[in-house]
Amino acid sequence: MAASKLPIYSALAANLAIAATKFVAASVTGSSAMISEGIHSLVDTLNEILLLVGIKRSQKPADARRPFGYGKELYFWAFIVSILIFGVGGGVSFYEGITHLQHPQPIEDPLWNYIVLGIAFALDGTSFITALKEFNRQRGTTPFWEAVRRSKDPSTFVVLFEDASDLLGLIVAFLGVFLGHQLNNPVFDGVASILIGLILTAVSLVLARESRSLLMGESMSQDTLQQIVGLVENDPAVSKVLESPSMYQAPEEVILILVIDFNDRLTIDDINKTIPKIRQTIRGQFPLVKRIIIEPGVAGQPTV
Fold it and tell me: Domain with 64 in it: what CATH number?
């Protein structure tokens, strides 16, 4: 099931507006946590743009230079996004927090911070709900974490995790500003900035792990492969499917290799006529299998 781009556009618009208002509030109040949150939203805005670039480039048709297509562009850019969340978002938040602890500045009037945080929470909350609905539509009845692990479309779960980290970061920033002002202790503001950095680092590690796995190449699920093997072995011309390695090139694009032991009574011409029929049968029931490479083999003999 193809993913919708709506969560990405929703997050892009929300983060762009929120980043501007956070920086304005930070310049007025001098809050370290607000600076970290502004950088956080700015990085998220860039992330959404990179995901859209990845989606666009992944749809380029195959050519002589990339005979298997450009589908993995999406996985590459999703991996870059996870690095940016860690390196820029998390790193700068740590830096801002430590700097604020070394040179604390009290928050004199937190009103602007509260206003911006409230607006940001409403916008990020709307974006999060949009992303969650799309993710739930994609996963169906699959448990949440299993769906994240099995998902082949990083554009869906990356935006969801970004929005979740946004909301957590806003809560931490609010607590830092509130406690720092009420107790007249700017240390809370610096600690909040460091905690925001920890949140971003944790999210980036999860996203980097999933994006790396997709970039390296993930197989179709064993259940789906067994269905395909059963479908092929029902053909009277086939004795047995010896191997069936597969790899996702994109969320809706799979390369499948089948090493087949054909019936001994078949001639070369018979096999050549059977192979296109097998491809057509597979594609009819599993349209995401775009490329099917079929190689004759003999049971008991090495295929390589």
Answer: 1.20.1510.10
Q: Where are the alpha helices (DSSP H) in 151-220?
A: 154-182, 187-216
Is 268 in contact with 296 (CB distance < 8 Å)?
no
| 60 assigned to some structural domain | yes
Among 46, 158, 168, 160, which Cα is nearest to 117's? 168
- 1 within a domain of the structure (yes/no): no
- By residue count, the chain amounts to 304
* Domain co-membership, 13 together with 97: yes
Secondary structure (DSSP) of 71-135 = TTHHHHHHHHHHHHIIIIIIHHHHHHHHHHHHS----S-THHHHHHHHHHHHHHHHHHHHHHHHH
Radius of gyration of the chain (CA): 25
The domain of 264 spans 222-296
What CATH code is carried by the domain that includes residue 230?
Answer: 3.30.70.1350
Where b means 16+ CB within 10 Å and e means fewer, 226-239 reads eebbebbeeeebbb
In a domain, 91, yes or no: yes
Q: What is the pLDDT of residues 255-284, one digit of tens each?
A: 999 999 999 888 889 999 999 999 999 999
With beta carbons less than 8 A apart as the criterion, state whether 288 and 106 touch. no
Domain boundary among 175, 201, 216: 216
User: Would you call 260 helix, strand, or coil by DSSP?
Assistant: strand
pLDDT tens-digit readout, 186-233? 888 888 888 988 888 888 888 888 888 888 889 998 999 999 999 999
Nearest to 37 by CA among 82, 93, 83: 93
> What is the enclosing helix (H) or strand (E) of 238?
strand 238-243
pTM above 0.85, yes or no: no
